[in-house]
Sequence to fold (592 residues):
Amino acid sequence: MNLKANTLHSGSAWVRVNQNLVAKSLQELSYEQILKVSSTDGQNFVFALQSGIEYHCQGWQGIWTDIKVEADSIVRVVDGIKMPVKSAGQFFIDCQKETGMDDIILGNFLEEMHNTLFSDLRIEQKQAEQSSSDMTTWSGLKIQSILNGHPKLLLNKGRITWSEGDLADFAPESQPLIRLMWLAVRKNSALASSMPGVSTDVVLAQSMDEAELKRFNQVLADFEISKSEHVFVPVHPWQWDRFIQVQFAAELSTGVIKALGVFGDAYQPQISIRTLSNVSRPGLWDIKLPVTILNTSSIRGIAAKYIPVGGELSQKMNDICAKDDVLKNVQVLSEKAGVSFQHPIYKQVALAPYRYHEYLGAIWRECAESKAGPGESSVLTGSFFHKDTEGRSLLGAYVASSGLTMSQWLRKYFEVVVVPLYHLQLKYGIGLVSHGQNIVLKLKDHAPVGLIIKDFQGDLRVAKGSVLVEESANLASHLLQLPRNYLIHDLFTGHFVTVLRFISEVLKECDGYSEYEFYGILGEVLRDYLSTTGKNLNVDDSVNLLAEKMPRVLVNKVRFKIGYADSHERPVPMVGDELMNPIVLGLNKGAL
Fold:
């Protein structure tokens, strides 16, 4: 029995996380044009549902057209009777016609919702003890342990198939210490690659200290396992217990795979769950491992198709950044090595659900801390819309500590983050899916000084004719080449809609900073870039971030439509009606 349960399940806390989820849902479903909203004064809003039930709330409409709802103001109105909102589940049942979910999908959705709410309870308990000003002294990894997760996806901590014990043992908010099971796989059965100079011994030395390496080598000698004939794969302990021992029983029985035991350093999970940071020896490589759970939009595996190009992509990106003045403050977290072992039975079923092809593998990648100089730190950009329980923004605390004004700090952010990402697309045909977990801001004395980019396994996309594929047949054969205008969504949707939208809203709520001022500064920075460096880069309307209108990309509607059935590919977003570009609105703020 969990003795913490009574504290965790206090009635007021449970109601609060439900209210917060309903508030988030009203905001995102209004943005995705799934719910219709009306207001007579811009402060009081009514969501009238086809079920005849209404939700009334107070809030304000942001520059992106969504409604920012005050969670404790929401009431559910049935036949004219107003009742406080206590159940997010009831809300989703009430708006089932609007979402279009059938009962099968809705049932699965409610299971994922309860998982999310349970984790929300655990995180809220931690957040109550921390202030934003205290957090400015934390490491980026520690900050991740109390973040709320993906801001757009309604159910952002579904973690389907994890139990309460699994959450305690493996979830980032628990800050667990995780040690890894190691397997030896015959080299002729696995797919492996590494950057030049990265040998098996180098990889192992990044994962275990001398004493552990000595013990590891002794086990290899006892099993008569040759390093030249095998690759070595670390496995997340949950993945080992839940899938590998069972699904790979044949390979373990025949010696294609040999289980060596638990070795090496202790790791903590980042907010993405499957990427682990070394806490025994901070600064050494991260390890990214499959954890076959459905969390947010997809099941978290390691795709084999990108393993052969991780090292080359990293080196190419390093070379590009080193030679371009616009990218001088951009650093790359190189993918030093990767390995994948595809199940020999499932591999023969090409269009089987993708999770069956991604059970076993690993990627070793440089960590953000290794890029920090004296007085510098690195923080996920997805951290900057956090606010503490007293309503103080984390970004506001960083600004106060930096000695800059809010406008000065934001201008530096846009110069070191947005301009380089845009430049990569325009000049080199390289798009990074730049959501808040992929893009890392480097700070010096709490002010923005640089950008750190990572995660090229499927989150880097190239335009037809990109320098990456023109110069490398290997990259050309592995990377999907898209029309140039497709990549702009990686920046606009990935960073503007999913990061900057929430930062600007939090700054308005917590710091009284105008959204028009926020996007006006971004517009000025982009306009300066386009009038200088960008003027020679063929910026037509399809890739112009200063275009009058922008697409409205939908992510929750995808889940409502496809449900929870298996697919051989990961789901992709949908597109709704266009919206007025907030950057243009910001630039024109003086005329409004």
The chain has 21 helices and 27 strands. The first strand starts at residue 37 and ends at 39. Residues 5-100 form a domain with the TATA-Binding Protein fold (CATH 3.30.310.280). Confidence is low (pLDDT under 50) at residues 1-7.
